[in-house]
Design a protein that fits this description.
DNA-binding transcription factor activity, single chain, HTH_MarR-typ, three-stranded antiparallel β-sheet, DNA-binding MarR family transcriptional regulator, Arc Repressor Mutant, subunit A, elongated, mainly alpha
């Protein structure tokens, strides 16, 4: 018979693992690449999209930020000292605004992706993955 707390223990393990890795990703991306995790996700989603551009509304939904927060984030990333993105008005709908990744942004993303993968490989050890694999069924 399963312990009544197995599901809760599995959930707490999962959230603790996520929080720790998320914090480490945030810290390491900032230190090595001068990028926040949200900025990294912006570059990731845009770089994998067709034409290397997305509407701000699409980014807002993907990143999970408010309209004003995504707008401020993109403006910072478009700034001359950052230069990773550039803004374009949608030709079909003048109200729509696209942001496109620049060559500088693509290079910055590739370097940050290496950092991201290093952190994941170092932080999520094989034993934790095995334990996680064992705990997942308890969450269903």
């Amino acid at each position: 018979m399963e312990n009544k707390n197995d599901t809760l223990d599995a959930w707490l393990f999962l959230t603790d693992l996520y929080s720790g890795v998320n914090d480490k990703l945030e810290r390491t991306l900032q230190e090595k690449n001068n990028l926040s995790l949200k900025e990294f996700y912006v570059l990731y989603f845009i770089s994998k999209s067709d034409d290397k551009k997305l509407r701000l509304q699409q980014l807002q939904e993907m990143i999970g930020l408010s309209q004003s927060a995504i707008s401020r984030l993109v403006v910072r990333m478009e700034a001359k000292n950052y230069g990773a993105l550039e803004r374009h008005v949608c030709e079909d709908d003048r109200r729509g605004i696209y942001t496109r990744i620049t060559e500088l942004g693509e290079n910055k993303f590739q370097r940050a992706l290496n950092t991201f993968n290093e952190v994941l490989q170092l932080d999520i050890q094989y034993d934790e993955l095995k334990k996680l694999q064992h705990l997942i069924p308890k969450l269903s």
